[in-house]
Amino acid sequence: MKKRLSTLKRKYQEILSNPIARWTLIGLVMALILIIPILNFQQRAYWVRVIGYTGLYIILGLGLNVVVGLAGLLDLGYVAFYAIGAYTYALLASGHFDLHFSFWLILPIAAFLAGFAGILLGIPVLRMRGDYLAIVTLGFGEIIRMLVTNLTDLTNGSQGLIGIDSPYLFGLELKTSTHFYYMILIFVILVVFFTLRLDHSRIGRSWIAMREDEDAAQMVGVNTTRYKLLAFAVGALIGGLGGAIFAAWQGSIFPDNFNLMVSINVLCLIIIGGMGSIPGVVIGSFALITLPDILREFSDYRLLLFGFLLVVMMIARPEGFIPSQRRRLELHAEEFALPAPADNPTESET
Known about the structure:
Strand content: under 5%
Number of helices: 16
Structural class: mainly alpha
Shape: globular
Radius of gyration: 23 Å
Order of helices and strands: HHHHEEHHHEEEHHHHEHHHHH
Strand order of the largest sheet: 1-2
Number of strands: 6
Helix content: 55-70%
Distance between the termini: 45 Å
Mean pLDDT: 86
C-alpha cells in the first residue's frame, strides 16, 4: 500500500512538473468551466450557481493569499473588507438612499474604500506578529459586523438591504446566474493576472523576504512598514471587489452574510491549496466550496466526511495540493538535498 501511494505521488509530481501536461490539464478544465452554462443537463442551474460561488471565493482567496501567503501576515478579519465592498455597492445602488449609480462606477469606489480600510487596519498593527496580529484582525472583522448590524439608520441593521440594482453592460441587464457566472470568471482571470504579476515583481519578492524573516528583510533594505501596509491595502482592495460583486449578484445583503466563518473558509482554502500558490487557491476553492455540495447526498454525515478529508489532507500533504516552490522546499528539504559526496580513498588505503 505504501509503495502504491509513493508511486501515485511520484506520478502526480511528474504531471505537475511537465509544462505540456500541466497546461493541457488547465486548458481542459477551463474549457469545461466555459461550456457548463450552455450544456443541457438536469442540474445545470444548480451547478452554475455553485461554481459561480466558488469563483467568488477564488477572488477572496487570491486577496487573502497576498496578505497571508506572500507577506506572511495572519489576517482573521478579512471578511471586514468583503463587507465594506458589499455595503458600499448596496448603499449606492438601491432604494435605501434612493441612489442608483452604475455598477461599473461603484466597483472601483468599493475597492478603494476597502483598500483604504486595509491601510487603516495596518497602521496600528505594524509591530504585531503571529497570534497577536491574528487576534487584532479578528477583532476588526467583528467590529465591522457589529457596526453594520447596529447602525440601523445607515445599513438598515439586521433587516439588511434589499432591492439592490443589477449591473448593466451595453444595455443588457446582468441578473441571471449565468450572467454572473461569466462575469465572475472574467474577474477571476483579471485578479489572477494581477496577483501573478505582483508575485513576480520586486514587491512580491519583498513580501516573500518579509514572510521568511522580517528582521533579516529589514536589515537588507526592505521597508517592512511600507510593504506591510501595501499588502493589507492590496488584499483588502481585492476583498472589496468581491464584496461588490456578491451584493450585485444576490440583490440583497444581511449582516449574517459576513460572519467569522467567511474569513475561516477563505483562510482554509489557502492552506489546503498551498500558501503563496495562485493555482493552489483555485484548487483549494473547489475543494472547500464545491466538495461539500458534492457530499450533499450524505447530508447526515457530510460535515463529518469533509472534516475527515481535511484531517487526512493536513497529515498526508501539509504543504497543500499545489504549494509554491519555496513552500515545497521548506517542508520537503530532504527530497531536494544533494547526495553527500563519497569519500575518496587515499593512496595508503589503496
